[in-house]
Design a protein that fits this description.
Layout (H helix, E strand, L loop, with lengths): L3 E3 L2 E4 L3 H12 L4 E5 L6 H5 L1 H18 L15 H26 L2 E4 L1 E6 L2 E6 L2 E6 L2 E4 L3 E3 L15 H4 L8 E5 L3 H13 L2 E5 L11 H13 L3 E3 L6 E5 L3 E5 L5 E4 L1 E4 L3 E3 L32 E3 L10 H15 L13 E3 L4 E6 L2 H6 L4 E7 L4 H5 L6 E7 L5 E8 L2 H13 L4 H6 L10 H7 L6
Parallel strand pairs: 1-7, 2-3, 2-8, 3-4, 8-18, 10-11, 10-16, 11-12
Antiparallel strand pairs: 5-6, 6-7, 9-17, 13-14, 14-15, 19-20, 20-23, 21-22, 22-23
Helix pairs in contact: 1-4, 1-8, 3-4, 3-6
The structure holds flavin-adenine dinucleotide and nicotinamide-adenine-dinucleotide.
Nicotinamide-adenine-dinucleotide (NAD) binds next to α6 and β19.
């Protein structure tokens, strides 16, 4: 019988929230174990945000190199060296993994590498290359993340499709890439691979891309992708798949559509990593989709057990997982921070970027709010003209009678950075005229905010 090692706390899964909490508590002198299957630093730096944004930057350089003549520079014979793209991505990832490892070591936490599962309340068994360790602690923090969902489509599993993990490590460029799902991953990866030289088709079951956004944003994003030659196929239902990704693969729709590609990438949402890990033995409830049920301070149904990040149903962003760490820390210290009503911004890293904070116009209508809307085409912003980045718009939703900013969306160059300016104003409770009347440096993209908020109609 393996002895049970005891700790003050166990972080089960080393995602953003978990590793941050673990390092902090270990530095404070507590005996902390982190159970991690193998990704030092979690999925963001290993297989998600960081490698995808590195790939996207390589693709952007390739695109710019091919479009320099518009700027008066002639470059001939531009070609992509995909192994070099892959190696750059791997190097950025390796550096971040090393930084995380150094942080773990310096904090004094105990990293237990291997696949973990509950075998009893507050007790986790970790299996790695034949060895078994059993760990127990009065406090457990679950941060196990999600994996790519492979939908139940006839022939899909057999086709051995790529997920983001494999796609980010390809050494050969797919000649014809089919992308199943036109969400965040689908949109970002489609544009990146298109710019690196692949023919790309997005196969989306919904009636539009970015369905949570206003129709103008959704349409603008679709135009951006289509203008670069990406085929966007919407309303694709009752799919069947034939062939093998990496050789030849065919996706058929129920209404007779047919798409042929060399590779198939699945980006159709996420599945929480909660199956087969003994949550029932530990008294931890999950919902019908397998996400761990939590309250607004991320406590699970088991006393002394919290869940954080994607596995707890939090918004699927690294910054949301980081905020979950703050919520749990507050919960431990009997504070009041909660997940209720928090402002979670996001950026879709297509070019130009799409960013949003707060509500959009369709949300305002759905919630029955009285609101005013202001919109500004990127084309009128002087900096956008100097950069030849004229695509897109800014859009603000403002209360009809209090000047409160309800939300901001932007499709345009530097949208993520500009959105953060509005977010700060919203967090500070600033009425919109403060942004309208601020002295904003010329010529910056943020200068457009003054013009945007000048377009808000007088209150009724
Ligand atoms: C392609 C892609 C691009 C993305 N881009 C962005 C972006 O630009 N910006 C953004 O904010 N978000 C982005 N995201 C989302 C972001 O990666 C996640 O929201 C973020 O990493 C937070 O994850 P987490 O903290 O829930 O857990 P994770 O970081 O997923 O960590 C969970 C950890 O648990 C470990 N684990 C799981 N099961 C076990 C087990 N049984 N035993 C031991 N260990 C286990 C895993 O190995 C993993 O390290 C992207 C996601 C993808 C897939
Ligand atoms: N820039 C970022 O912050 C960023 C980037 C990538 C991923 N992420 C996070 O990762 C999460 C997962 O990304 P994702 O793109 O996998 O999911 P998603 O939920 O964003 O999009 C999935 C898409 O696949 C479609 N779909 C689902 N099943 C399908 C089927 N059978 N056939 C055709 N289409 C189908 C859905 O309609 C949807 O449009 C996102 O929700 C996001 O929070 C964030």
């Amino acid at each position: 019988m393996t002895d049970i090692e005891t700790f003050d706390m166990i972080v089960f899964g080393g995602g953003k929230a978990g590793k941050t909490l673990a390092m902090e508590k270990a530095r404070a002198g507590r005996r902390v174990a982190v159970v991690e299957e193998g990704m030092i630093g979690g999925s963001c730096i290993n297989v998600a945000c960081i490698p995808s944004k590195t790939l996207i930057r390589s693709a952007e350089v390739a695109y710019e190199a091919r479009t320099t003549s518009a700027f008066g520079t002639i470059i001939e014979n531009v070609r992509t060296d995909l192994p070099a793209v892959r190696d750059r991505t791997a190097k950025v990832v390796a550096e971040m993994v090393a930084t995380n490892q150094a942080g773990f070591d310096a904090s004094g936490l105990h990293l237990v590498l291997g696949f973990g599962k509950f075998i009893a309340p507050k007790t986790i068994e970790v299996v790695a290359s034949g060895s078994i360790r059993r760990l127990s602690a009065p406090q457990i923090f679950i941060n196990l993340g999600t994996v790519a969902t492979i939908p139940e489509i006839p022939g899909l599993k057999e086709a051995q499709p790529l997920t983001h993990k494999e796609a980010l490590r390809l050494g050969d460029l797919p000649t014809r890439l089919l992308v199943l799902g036109g969400g965040y991953i689908g949109m970002e990866m489609s544009q990146a691979f298109r710019r690196l030289g692949a023919d790309v088709t997005i196969i989306e079951r919904g009636s539009r891309l970015a369905p949570r956004e206003d129709l103008d944003a959704s349409k603008g994003i679709t135009d951006v992708l289509q203008n670069e030659g990406i085929c966007v196929a919407l309303d694709c239902k009752d799919l069947t798949v034939q062939g093998t990704s990496g050789q030849r693969v065919v996706v058929k729709t129920g209404d007779g559509g047919e798409f042929e590609g060399s590779h198939l990438l699945v980006a159709a949402g996420r599945t929480p990593r909660t199956a087969g890990i003994g949550l029932d033995l530990a008294g931890i409830d999950v919902d019908e989709r397998g996400f761990i049920k939590v309250d607004d301070q991320l406590r699970t149904s088991a006393e002394g057990v919290w869940a954080m990040g994607e596995v707890a149903g939090s918004p699927m962003f690294t910054h949301a997982s980081l905020d979950d760490y703050r919520v749990v820390k507050s919960s431990l210290e009997e504070g009041f921070r909660s997940t209720d009503g928090r402002l979670v911004p996001y950026v879709v890293f297509i070019d130009p970027e799409f960013a949003r904070v707060g509500i959009n116009e369709e949300d305002a209508k759905r919630e029955g709010l009285e609101y005013r809307v202001a919109k500004l085409a990127m084309d009128v912003i002087p900096r956008a003209r100097t950069m030849s980045k004229r695509q897109g718009f800014m859009k603000a939703i403002v209360s009809a009678d209090t000047d409160e900013i309800f939300g901001f969306s932007m499709l345009g160059v530097n949208a993520g950075e500009v959105m953060s300016v509005v977010q700060m104003a919203m967090l500070g409770g600033l009425p919109y005229p403060v942004l309208r009347d601020a002295i904003l440096a010329h010529p910056t993209i943020s200068e457009g905010l003054g013009m945007l908020f000048a377009n808000v109609s007088a209150s009724s």
